[in-house]
Amino acid sequence: MKIFLHSFLILTLSFSLLGLFTGCGSKFHHQKFYVFGTLVEVSLWGVSEQKASEAINVITQDFQTMHRHWHAWQPSPLTELNQAIAAGEAHTIQEPSLLLLLKKAKRFYNQSDGLFNPTIGQLIGLWGFHNEDLTSHRSLPSSEKIAELVTLSPGMDDIEIEDNRISSRNPAVQFDFGAFAKGYAVDLAVKKLRELGIQNAIVNAGGNLKAMGKKGDKPWLIGIRHPSGKGVLAAVALNEEESVITSGNYERFFEYEGVRYSHIIDPRKGKPVRGLTSVTVINRSGALADAASTALTVAGLQDWHRIARQMNIKYVMLVDEKGTIYMNPTMEMRVQLPAHEKSKVVISEPL
Predict the structure, then answer these.
(1) pLDDT tens digit string along 33-46?
(2) Is the dihedral of CA 8, 293, 137, 258 positive or negative?
(3) If both were cysteines, with which of 40, 172, 328, 349 could 154 make a disulfide (CB 3.0 to 4.6 Å apart)?
(4) Distance (Å, whole) CA 291 – CA 271
């Protein structure tokens, strides 16, 4: 969705795009499966076919388990927590990964001044994004209902975490971890692959991508999708273990009367964000990169730099609705733009 991996794998630093399987032989193993409402791809290098098959089977099962535990609107431990909060009750979490998600979410919420806010599940549902099918006919939510939810102002500051017992003083809190769950999932997948003895791999959950090691003696070089949907915006070589994650208005959206409405909601306004078409973040932590790409999208051109600093992000690339590309200097050193790319590029102050 966000990053072209299955179509192209860039094998050199010269921006040449070679087919995924070209020259790979038996050293390269690649498998796809569908979970989290998206295509997940696992690519391994330098292991036997049997070891690759066993490792990918483990990762597939782990993703399916995470999907069952973290789902925001189908019955899951997360919906059980949301139901308890709505009823004004404390809830004991039995699933360790869900508790870790909550703790990470609280930290990222504070670092982003609340622009990353996974407690606005009611707003996300109000806009129709608690639905796999966004193509069906729909109308916009009423201004009154949006204003009501914004006034209730749910946030991570409303949450108390005592051991594994969760309570909230605000019944409007409804968790939806879609803004960073896939980033955290690829973190866990890469960690599991290391435990299984895999040293060189890419895990790509619908464009939430994390790589470790290399492809032979070359770094993994990834093409970042152009927000227009046409071709590659840029390429970046990944260092040992890094995540590349992009939030954009082309991922999940619907159109109404010629206007595109993105799944990324500004919690301050209760409405889908406007202004930026994509934000790409590189970080070792997929969870942090995922949360930061969402927060910076909400922050917009006026405030992304300050929020990136607060979240300790070192590599950022943004694209606005006019096609202008914005980068900080260290990101400029990492990415390669195609020779035919004619967009205006603006370099910010260092982060």
Answers:
(1) 998 878 999 999 99
(2) negative
(3) 172
(4) 18
